Amino acid sequence: MKSVRNKFATREQKEHMVCVGDAFNPVKSYTKADFMSPSNVAEKFNISRDAAKKLMQKAKTYDESFVLNGHRAPIIVKLSKTSGLYLHPMAIDAFQEYLQKQRI
Question: Which secondary structure element, helix H or strand E, spans residue 72, and what is its range?
């Protein structure tokens, strides 16, 4: 997974992105097990597994992101070179917003 420490979010980006926590009040930490696979995403949002996988690939391709503790973070991440795509545990609201945009 790429480091996102230097990707600061500007004020304009924060207005248009889903924000989770900030630099002074960071959100709780998460573990590798908290990341959601396409089948978990399909269960959570009541969509088919194939649709979840396609949406996750599309979000990864277009580099969809959200603001986590004042920094830009990708919604969809790849945990290793050989693993599949996973939904960031703090980006559930951002993914739901992305899903609503895709349905329109």
Answer: strand 71-74
